[in-house]
UniProtKB/TrEMBL annotation, chain A:
The keyword Hydrolase applies. PROSITE patterns: CHEB. This is protein-glutamate methylesterase. It catalyses: [protein]-L-glutamate 5-O-methyl ester + H2O = L-glutamyl-[protein] + methanol + H(+). InterPro entries: CheB_C (IPR035909), Sig_transdc_resp-reg_Me-estase (IPR000673). The lineage of its organism: Bacteria, Bacillati, Cyanobacteriota, Cyanophyceae, Nostocales. The keyword Hydrolase applies. Residues 1-194 form the CheB-type methylesterase domain. Keywords: Chemotaxis, Hydrolase. It comes from the Bacteria. The active site is at S11, H38, D137. Its EC number is 3.1.1.61. GO terms for cellular component: cytoplasm. GO terms for molecular function: phosphorelay response regulator activity; protein-glutamate methylesterase activity.
From TrEMBL, chain B:
PANTHER family: CHEMOTAXIS PROTEIN, CHEMOTAXIS PROTEIN METHYLTRANSFERASE. It comes from Brasilonema sennae CENA114. PROSITE patterns: CHER (PS50123). This is Protein-glutamate O-methyltransferase CheR. The keyword Transit peptide does not apply.
Length: 194, 274
């Protein structure tokens, strides 16, 4: 089954981890990537600009109902949940959708929300990656991804700035693969038939 | 058939039933967030499936009440995205100054925090006495709060920060008096505001406006419904009138894209040019 979407979640220590991961994805990486990084609700463009430094792909904060296309790294905007949905029954093209619903596991954007809606849309054509962090966000989302046949990758806790989030996912038994940070990008490149 | 497709069918049946029986129309709300909220309600009602919720909602009007409550998202803030209000001062106010009388429609105003923010701003720019603000929402309950203009005092610290970043000119505390852990906004701010119920899904235009603000409401609608609302706003805006949207909302890719130009400054202000 070809992979059509990659969803990445991270919290405390995420910027450094994303630097390594994004630097490992080549310019012609064929699958769209979305990232939820927990951050303060009044954050501005700085995170996007910082991530762009490390990536050969275009890093952008999606607008509501924006169509999802390869060649882009989509970053969840501050203070909005980032979700995936299909436009309608007639047009089953996935697009982004945003909302300001209550925080989930104290976070907006929440990793669970991205993961769960991506699972609904992409089922087994999805890979989710959970990186460093100090809470349990992402664990429920990974459970649903597994149930729908998608793949889940968790950062080896010993290589994480904060191991709590990866450890929570591993303990919950929702990790298909546990990889050191440096091996995650190469794994994604391989999985996307690249 | 895939499980997620079955889920979508169940949701359609639920929404269709609610529409036919109670008249509330959620059929064209954006699916992903709607689905999450529906599952939240299912858990709160100790049920296990969407069909189970359908049965309960249709036979138990009290459950329907709770359903309506949990389905509506009324999250709002004073001077949310301060830069939006700063740009309002810099780019929109000069345009408004050219009008002898200014009609503003604030659609989906929720509990009113944004409307009072705007009233304060217009007051400081010396325009408020020339303005009439129509603040509407589908939800009667939040409109009541909006009319009262009383908000928890502990939010004021954050709102003050926003106010200052938005170019506020005074001490924010001048606009309210505090009592019993609440901030009561001055009644002169309400003088030119008319609060009323309006449903963007079914109701029509009710006036012609120089400016329409509708932030973080369209994200809850699917493309079809967004289109309806953009048409409604188009009909309701004067030539060269201004439409202000939320930070992640856009007129790009809509059939009205060519009818508007975005004001400079990066915020979502669109000026109707034809
Ligand atoms: C997230 S709040 C946005 C409040 C405010 N504009 C802001 O950005 O802070 C969304 C509001 O849209 C209202 N709403 C939802 N559906 C609506 C409809 N069909 N017609 C009018 N208002 C609606 C809700 O009741 C809610 O108050």
């Amino acid at each position: 089954m070809t992979i059509q979407f990659i969803a990445i979640g991270t919290s405390l220590g995420g910027l450094e981890a994303l630097e390594v991961l994004l630097a490992g994805l080549p310019k012609n990486f064929p699958v769209p990537v979305a990232i939820v990084q927990h951050r303060h609700k009044s954050s501005d463009d700085k995170l996007r600009v910082a991530l762009q430094e490390y990536s050969a792909l275009v890093v952008t904060e999606p607008q509501d109902k924006e169509e999802i296309v390869p060649g882009y790294i989509y970053l969840a905007p501050a203070d909005y949940h980032l979700m995936i949905e299909v436009t309608s029954d007639a047009v089953r093209e996935p697009s982004f959708s945003l909302c300001v619903d209550a925080a989930v596991t104290y976070a907006r954007p929440s990793i669970d929300v991205l993961f769960e809606t991506a699972a609904d849309t992409y089922a087994e054509r999805l890979i989710a990656v959970l990186l460093t962090g100090a809470n349990h966000d992402g664990m429920q989302g990974m459970r649903k991804i597994k149930a729908r046949g998608g793949k889940t990758v968790v950062q080896e806790p010993s290589t994480a700035a904060c191991p709590i989030m990866p450890e929570a996912a591993i303990a919950a038994g929702v990790a298909d693969k546990v990889l050191p940070l440096a091996d995650i990008a190469p794994y994604l490149v391989k999985m996307c038939n690249f | 058939m895939l499980r997620e497709q079955l889920e979508d069918i169940e949701i359609q049946l639920l929404l269709e039933g609610i529409h036919r029986y109670y008249g509330f129309d959620f059929r064209n709300y954006a699916l992903a967030s709607l689905k999450r909220r529906i599952w939240k309600i299912i858990r709160a009602e100790s049920l296990t499936s969407i069909s189970g919720l359908q049965e309960k909602v249709l036979h138990d009007p009290e459950c329907m009440e709770r359903f309506l409550c949990s389905l509506s998202v009324n999250v709002t803030t004073m001077f949310r995205d301060p830069n939006f209000f700063l740009m309002f001062r810099k780019k929109v106010v000069p345009i408004l100054r050219t009008y002898p009388f200014i009609r503003v429609w604030h659609a989906g105003c929720s509990s009113g925090e944004e409307v009072y923010s705007l009233a304060i701003l217009l007051q400081e720019e010396g325009l408020y006495h020339r303005c009439r603000l129509y603040a509407t929402d589908i939800n009667e309950m939040v409109l009541k709060k909006a009319k009262a203009g009383i908000y928890p005092l502990d939010a004021m610290q954050y709102y003050t920060q926003n106010y200052l970043q938005a170019g506020g000119k005074k001490a924010f505390s001048e606009y309210y008096t505090s009592a019993y852990e609440h901030a009561i906004f001055s009644s002169y701010l309400k003088e030119n505001i008319i609060f009323s119920q309006h449903n963007l899904v079914i109701d029509n235009s009710f006036n012609e406006f120089n400016i329409i603000l509708c932030r973080n409401v369209l994200i809850y609608f699917n493309r079809f419904l967004q289109q309806r609302v953009f048409n409604l706003f188009h009909e309701s805006l004067v030539q060269f009138g201004i439409l202000g949207l939320g930070r992640q909302e856009t007129m790009k890719f809509t059939p009205h894209e060519q009818d508007y130009e975005q004001l400079e400054g990066g915020e979502k202000f669109y000026r109707r040019i034809r």
